[in-house]
Structure formats: C-alpha cells, structure tokens
C-alpha cells in the first residue's frame, strides 16, 4: 500500500506525458495532415447527424461565383471549414498570416530561404527543371506585384514594401536566379524605394 502511494503519482505523470508526447513530435506538415484528418472525421459525424445542414453548406461553398468579393468568400470558407469541409483557401491560415508582423521586421530572410528550399525540393520530386520553374515564378510574382503597385486600397497595399523586399531576397538566396533576371521583369527603382521606406519606418519606430 505504501509502495503504491509512491509509485502511482509517477505512473500517472508518465501516462499523461505519453499522451502529450506524440502531439509534440508532430512536424509542421504532420500537423496540417492531422488537422485534415480531424476535419474529415468531424464532417462524417455532422453528415450523419445533420445531413441536410451539411449539404446546404457544401452546396453554398461549391457555388460561390469567382467574382465574389474576397471578404464575402472568406465568410463562406470560414463556415465551411467549421463544418469540416475542405476549402480552396484555408481561413485559419489566412487569419494566422494576417496577424503576423511585417516581414522585414525580423523574419523575411527565413521566408526567402524557405521558399527557395521548398521550391527546389518539390521540383526535384516532380522531376522538373528548378531553374525554369523558378523563372516562371519570378515572372508571375513580378507581374502580380506590379499590379498591386497600382492599387489604392489600403488593405491590398498593406506591407507592400515588405513583399517587394521578400522578392528581392528570394532572388539573392536562390542559386538559380540572378539580379539581372529580376531587373528584367521588376523595376529596381521600386526595390530602392521599398528599402528606403522600411529604413524610414524603422527609424521612426525606434525614435
């Protein structure tokens, strides 16, 4: 009896730790997959108990017009995601990213390196030309950023300079891209202005 009084707390602590440990060992991709599995099982439960409501939400999601305002579409995606339905855009990820600070503050170099590493790995797996695919990415990204540069909406243009600098750092980090290639599709004057704006902001915030 006395032995059990000493052993039981250690046993309970070990049992509790054994339940938590597998979750801690999940990697980033595993967490995404684990979340997808939970959502699919949750959808099965809802479909069994409230099939009419689930089918209504699914029908609503599947018939969103492409020209629908993004804010309205995100409301539909949030409703669909809450019911366990897979969405084209992950609303939880959108919220998480939008709550982050500007990239140039402390982590833009990590993003640039991550994008290059992930791109190289994926193109290697799918046996594509890494250099050609990254050139296509650079051209498309530059075109999209130039369109953003013409926008006047504050929500759309928020942290625009940070994204300009991210594009510059992606090229600097990449062994497959060159600054000459970047300058051929994205005006260097925009990068220079972006660096100036970021420096001015850092000076203002530190004063």
Automatic annotation (TrEMBL):
Which Gene Ontology BP annotations are present? cell migration; cell projection assembly; cortical actin cytoskeleton organization; neuron projection morphogenesis
Q: How does it sit in the membrane?
A: Single-pass membrane protein
Name one cellular component (GO) term: lamellipodium membrane
Please indicate if the UniProt record lists Metal-binding as a keyword. no
Principal localisation: membrane
Task: Please identify the protein, giving its name as recorded.
Answer: Nck-associated protein 1
Cited InterPro entries: Nck-associated_protein-1
Record flagged with keyword Secreted:
no
Family, per the entry? Belongs to the HEM-1/HEM-2 family.
Q: Name one Pfam family in it.
A: Nckap1
Q: Which UniProt keywords apply?
A: Cell membrane, Cell projection, Membrane, Transmembrane, Transmembrane helix
Q: Where in the cell is it found?
A: Cell projection, Lamellipodium membrane
